[in-house]
Amino acid sequence: MSDKTTIGVGMIGYAFMGRVHSQAWRSVGAFFDLPLAPRMAAICGRSKERTEAAAAQLGWAAAETDWRALIERDDVQIVDICTPGDSHAEIAVAALAAGKHVLCEKPLANTVAEAEAMVRAAAAAPSSVKSMVAFNYRRVPAIALARRYVEEGRLGEIRHVRAQYLQDWIVDPEFPLVWRLQKDKAGAGALGDIGSHIVDAAEYVTGQQVVGVSGLTETFVKRRPLAGESAGLGASRAESTGEVTVDDAALFIGRLSGGALASFEATRFATGRKNAMRLEINGGLGSLAFDFESMNELWVSEGGGGFERILVTEPDHPYAGAWWPPGHGLGYEHTFTHEIKDFLEAVATGADPSPSFADGLRVQRVLEAVERSAADGGRYTNVED
Amino acid sequence: MSDKTTIGVGMIGYAFMGRVHSQAWRSVGAFFDLPLAPRMAAICGRSKERTEAAAAQLGWAAAETDWRALIERDDVQIVDICTPGDSHAEIAVAALAAGKHVLCEKPLANTVAEAEAMVRAAAAAPSSVKSMVAFNYRRVPAIALARRYVEEGRLGEIRHVRAQYLQDWIVDPEFPLVWRLQKDKAGAGALGDIGSHIVDAAEYVTGQQVVGVSGLTETFVKRRPLAGESAGLGASRAESTGEVTVDDAALFIGRLSGGALASFEATRFATGRKNAMRLEINGGLGSLAFDFESMNELWVSEGGGGFERILVTEPDHPYAGAWWPPGHGLGYEHTFTHEIKDFLEAVATGADPSPSFADGLRVQRVLEAVERSAADGGRYTNVED
Amino acid sequence: MSDKTTIGVGMIGYAFMGRVHSQAWRSVGAFFDLPLAPRMAAICGRSKERTEAAAAQLGWAAAETDWRALIERDDVQIVDICTPGDSHAEIAVAALAAGKHVLCEKPLANTVAEAEAMVRAAAAAPSSVKSMVAFNYRRVPAIALARRYVEEGRLGEIRHVRAQYLQDWIVDPEFPLVWRLQKDKAGAGALGDIGSHIVDAAEYVTGQQVVGVSGLTETFVKRRPLAGESAGLGASRAESTGEVTVDDAALFIGRLSGGALASFEATRFATGRKNAMRLEINGGLGSLAFDFESMNELWVSEGGGGFERILVTEPDHPYAGAWWPPGHGLGYEHTFTHEIKDFLEAVATGADPSPSFADGLRVQRVLEAVERSAADGGRYTNVED
Amino acid sequence: MSDKTTIGVGMIGYAFMGRVHSQAWRSVGAFFDLPLAPRMAAICGRSKERTEAAAAQLGWAAAETDWRALIERDDVQIVDICTPGDSHAEIAVAALAAGKHVLCEKPLANTVAEAEAMVRAAAAAPSSVKSMVAFNYRRVPAIALARRYVEEGRLGEIRHVRAQYLQDWIVDPEFPLVWRLQKDKAGAGALGDIGSHIVDAAEYVTGQQVVGVSGLTETFVKRRPLAGESAGLGASRAESTGEVTVDDAALFIGRLSGGALASFEATRFATGRKNAMRLEINGGLGSLAFDFESMNELWVSEGGGGFERILVTEPDHPYAGAWWPPGHGLGYEHTFTHEIKDFLEAVATGADPSPSFADGLRVQRVLEAVERSAADGGRYTNVED
């Protein structure tokens, strides 16, 4: 890649998302013929020691402990935000103001107001400065193939969307009160964390928008043990638990702009389902079904027949040709590699990457409509434009 | 069976339901050790010729063209109602008044008022006169086994019910306006026909009741060609279609009496799904999943592990011991054989058969709440008691 | 059916096969428009009391205790043989000599010599006297559909057949020495009982014949507890077991007449597999896969794509149109109903039913070649003509 | 990783295997806490230009065009052989003689004689010099978990192994005569390329050895178009094809050292199967089933029940804890990352890596026995020690 223009990347956060983004930045150039060669310039975290260890392990050239310093680095042209949602807006707005491209983890922000500020900042930036929200499931080859089928009209008029994101990691009432269960840090619970993914995926694959919803949310376990050191010495049992301030599960039904009916369910209480991000779409001519637990498969029904299990590993399938021979599957991390490949191409060519911050805001507004509906007795609630 | 007391059966209707009930009456004694031997005394239909042909083909000893005459026959002690929903109430009330046991196809009636009249008639009858509504899916061995798992507490507290009934037989807009698409005859569309099954199954398996719902319904194809001769000679194209007066699809979310969230979807527009009556239940300790398209399988997750595919064909599984060795599956019709076996046992022992007319009324009230919610912008609507 | 010519049936044996054949005779007329109406004239067993009870329960008009008397009855035109293999030849030869049509359970006989005698008797009978061996799996709708695909050339040249019949009912070494584990009664073990089914199915679906094999057989558990009363009072432990004289499992590979390679495995030691009769066929243009544990499904790959799950319940699928709407599956017993329907049509029209006794003999010769190969160190052994 | 001892790696070959090994070397340190930090020192290929491009793309510090020069480099302590089988022996023997650790792609060599030479070289090397053959499927988490189940005795005595490796990439007779279809380069066809994987996997998971086999091989398409430039200008049609000198498919049955029966099938003619490397094992207490096309799943039956689908992504599953949360699957390349992790640990700790060259030789001897059996009319042939 020595003859390619390099572009410096600075990443903020080194936990789950930071690790998977690092693997993507590290790998993308070996598989895709990129217009720009990414250079893993610097990583940023609050603890100097831990950030330096992460830099060494994950392959970043430098470590920063202040995200503002990271943004200001001359060798950083792309800022990759992998922090919890409460800091997305502040970092993204600052990075865009500094003329840096921004790739931001989902959900775009914890509130609609923050997301709007981010969209304004993206609009205010020069058109050569790109921003993108990291709904990585769009880059599952099977989901990108599903999109292609709909675009080509092979499904006909869409009648139904059935989207579920089922996990089970907090079924145990003794599971502690981690930050993802606290509204001030996470913004929302299952609705924001995984419900956002299925709203984006449904809109992406159908090319339609959710226009109104009726919603129900629930927090099955109201209080949980405090996590780690915060419980403290001598804490009484009563003092050692805290309130869960986000939803455990959210269900909503609604209508899409093209006339389809849609059903959504996001939950962390589906015992036995580990990461069942499922999408089924029925059209007048055909249907599609997907489950991320078998991420290399897309099930397609056409001509009134049964469902065909397509292994999405053929050379002409989205992204798949860059990897291995047919039948040799990909994993979770590859969705991020694909995302970064598309982002780098947009940066290089001047195209607008997708999903944009505006797309991220739209998802946020759907989630907000669900919350308003749930608070208003399930009344059908229009998604605001 | 010569030494057993026989009991005479009279059946009204000889279409789809009449054929499958006949097979059940004809077969039940060969597989189950019954307290009463059913005798297929008479069948009733409007056309003398067709009814007589049906009697010959299906194995009924006599044919009647007036259901009142059938009820009055001395050799008929059980009246089996296999007609469309608009005639259920009148026939059932008359049969009960005549002291006959009644097995009535679902949905119990086309309206809550009719269903209430049937419940009153059942209550007014002597306690020895039995009545039952034919929600046959309760008698799928896998669903009965699911019920057993919940009763035994193996799933823990129920958190989620996910129920779908997906068909695709009217996806084609040229499919004609058959009686099931006309409100005066069918009462409702997908909601009443197949939505009723999943409401009953969800309540049966969980042992809980749906207490409130938010609903959406849709008729995707508003007008359809008139069926058969009714189109008439010289009809212009405009005259040759009629209005579809029932729903094509119904979605609703709600709460169960035990605190679970539930999601329901009934549709005739799920291209590629032929008879996908699906039920998934998540509890604090385990989960269950079922799809009627693979009716001999129940999927069970316990102890946080994956889902085990249980072939529900073992001798100790519900109903299965009466049939074939393990792995030799049953079909659709067997659910009716099981239903009739249970009904005959109730008649013989004096126990109350289940689901009762009151259970059928409850399902009707849930459906009515869905319709009221859908008409009221999806507002969460309590199911009336 | 009053206006149809009836034909009398006499059945010998009332155990597993007798029960399922009875259900087929009882049901066939209600679903298929038959040229002859079968009349269940008489059933035959050794115990008078048990046979009379079986007649009453299964719907036979009379009971006999001597199969020769059954054959001689004027009201019996069809003899249905449901006994163990050691009596097939004697009964079938006598019945054919008496001018009766014969339907005989599989395997045709316990030895090639017996099977040859049966083929000779069938050939010696007038052409209006029909005989058929009951390889019921040919009448699974999915397998009949598979045959249709091959016949239509949709698979191209056949390259591979992969056939397995996996059960687990004798995995427990304490399972007793029932008749199926004794060579004098059963002829062979897994090889004859279930291996015969997959040989017939492979030949039927491909339209080719097994021309040579290399085989391995094994008896994992050499001695087993004597079953029931035969163990006797005061028997010492050593005396209370008997030798297993048949194979527990048989594996063989071979070539088909059209050039395909084939792999067969029949075993009663596949823990967790209940009745996994599986067939996969790969051709130059497409492939098929089937597993009886999901008997309503056929998996088809065409055009280099993935496998489509076809629910074999459509009106134009073999046999399926006579039953229920799409997606409402059939069970094990229906394969026998279909078999009897085809047999009755052959008897009425004069066509030769299939599989013939000659077909049954061919299967026997394949099994014999497997045994010879296994006894001769696996040497590739030609199947004799 | 700056404080870790680094170890230099030199890799020979940059095609399919070179690309996937590179990804593994590049990634392993970011996910596993290694005792040695690998440094991607040099890559070797015949074309200077292509090798330099590969070095740049795949992340190697230098490029060599002579494998002997690569071996001699001071910054290379590990030689990773990713060439076709005909050069394995020469390179490996030289590398071991030079005191370099060797990781060699499978099959170990094209002939038993070559493999024996490699085993001798490995034995002659100092014990601190390690060698390993790259049967990567052992490092599929699901297969490693299967091994654990067998080791723990959860399956009981093993009765059956059913191993298949099904591909379809040369079904088309117009597919050209690539090197994998030429005996002088590839050694064998499906038997060596993919048959070797299933023999190794079967022996690894069961802990038993194949002791004898009966085999059949076939070349369905005898001549194929010459690939690329070799066809030449003016070549007549007859001249433009070449002979296929390896098998298209190989079937063999045999016995394992512990008494189990085993069935193997390797083919490139299984239309619709892309990379179906399947393994099913039945024991007295339980069974396992695996298919690489769904590589994150292991199916387990215990206690006589059905098969449980285990997503092998839990923290306590082999290798899985280093990656993502439960339900977030891995892909093909991860098996190589795991292999390299284990190899580096063996190098660092002095343990003997597995599978050893001796293991690779054993697999070779099984394949040779299959070929001898196939050439000798399928006679059961003992595997030589």
Automatic annotation (TrEMBL), chains A, B, C, D:
GO terms for molecular function: glucose-6-phosphate 3-dehydrogenase activity. Pfam families: GFO_IDH_MocA, GFO_IDH_MocA_C3. Residues 7-125 form the Gfo/Idh/MocA-like oxidoreductase N-terminal domain. It comes from Nonomuraea coxensis DSM 45129. PANTHER family: BCDNA.GH03377. Keywords: Oxidoreductase. The lineage of its organism: Bacteria, Bacillati, Actinomycetota, Actinomycetes, Streptosporangiales. It is an enzyme of class 1 (oxidoreductase). This is Glucose-6-phosphate 3-dehydrogenase. Its EC number is 1.1.1.361.
